[in-house]
Amino acid sequence: MTKNEIEALLDRLLDESEITEDRRIAKELLRSALQLGGDSTSTLNLKIASSAIAEMREAFAMFAPFSSRKKVTIFGSARTTKDDPLYKQTEAVAARLAQSGWMVMTGAGPGIMEAGMSGAGREMSIGVSIRLPFETSANPIIAGDEKYVAMKYFFTRKLMLVKESHAFICMPGGFGTLDEMFEILTLSQTGKGNPVPIVILDLPGDPFWEDLDTFIRNTLVPRKLVSVQDLALYKICNSVDQAVLEINNFYSNYHSMRYVGKRLVLRLNKALSKPQIDDLNRRFVDICANNSSLEVVPASRQEIEDNDNPEKFRLALRFARRDFGRLRELIDAINTL
User: Fold this and answer.
1) Angle in degrees, 0-180, between the axes of helices 85-99 and 112-120, rounded to the nearest 10
2) Model confidence over 211-231: pLDDT tens digits?
3) How far is CA 80 from CA 122, 176, 288, in A?
């Protein structure tokens, strides 16, 4: 078959399937699948690609009804027992957030994951589990619920927990928890994820995370492996009140952001005055590229066409796209005005 014949066949398949929205992207998916099959790809690699797409499709469908809801992901150890103070603390912070409208997402397993769902309740919980030989089912709070999906691969599971979340709470845990925490920090540090509140929650008097923070500040920063500004990407808390305040304050005025052309547009819940904007420009001139500044802008044509919060107040800047810790500090400053 020639390339043109294959393209025509793909178009006919899309027509027969009555796919009209995002047709170009759907066609790219089909084309990539055919190319994988024709590239002498190994059976194992084909299975990985096929399984990953299939379970992502299932997860996308599960999350779709809740796309407009605020969601917080709680990471932590599966080994934490119900009599552990960390379990009680997780229940408490999840309950408080659920009461203020947050849906709580966890890996649907035991320990801290179950504690988060216990605190939030089944109705406000979403579970994305990993199929393991020693963990064959979800915890009893979310098992069988329409808001639960099981994944074969850690990377697809993590994608869903991260992509759908507007905030994160990291409780003490082992390798898996540390992996999850450092991934969300890396996504924030590199701009591959949007700014979000990342709460590192300790028990009062238990320096689990404080010890790690000390290592970051005393070893990584002096060696210039991370910057001082990167420390703004997370907040260590040792009480439920602090954690809830950190998460809710992040969205007190800041709403969301979007790149439009060469500018980063920050959407806010309430307008800022000219003196307030002038003050921000003095304090954050270092993150505005090419001697530019923060300025008020209307919703762009793309945002209006997408109905992407066109009613929100907007500040735009030509962001240098390298110091995302400073961007987080800008958002914090906006929220205090």
Assistant:
1) 40
2) 999 999 999 999 999 999 999
3) 20, 13, 45
Distance of CA 127 to the CA centre of its chain: 15
Which residues does 81 contact at the CB level (< 8 Å), separation at least 6? 87, 111
pLDDT recorded at residue 173: 98
Alpha-carbon gap, residue 51 to 157, rounded angstroms: 12
For 60-90, the pLDDT digits (tens) are: 999 999 999 999 999 999 999 999 999 999 9
User: CA-CA distances (angstroms) from residue 239 to 102, 105, 160, 245, 308?
Assistant: 18, 20, 27, 10, 35
CA distance 327 to 193: 13
Span 109-156, pLDDT tens digits: 999 999 999 999 999 999 999 988 776 679 999 999 999 999 999 999
Calculate the CA 255 to chain-centre distance: 14
d(CA 89, CA 200): 13
| CA Rg value for the chain | 22
Burial class of residue 175 in the structure, from the number of CB atoms within 10 Å of its CB (0-12 exposed, 13-18 middle, 19+ buried)? exposed
In terms of Cα–Cα distance, which of 148, 144, 74, 146 is closest to 115? 74
Q: With contact defined as beta carbons under 8 Å apart, do 225 and 189 qualify?
A: no
Two tokens, residue 240:
């439920």
Helix residue spans in 100-226 (DSSP H): 112-120, 154-163, 175-190, 208-215
User: Rounded to the nearest 10 degrees, how much is the dihedral formed by the CA atoms of 309, 312, 316, 321?
Assistant: -50
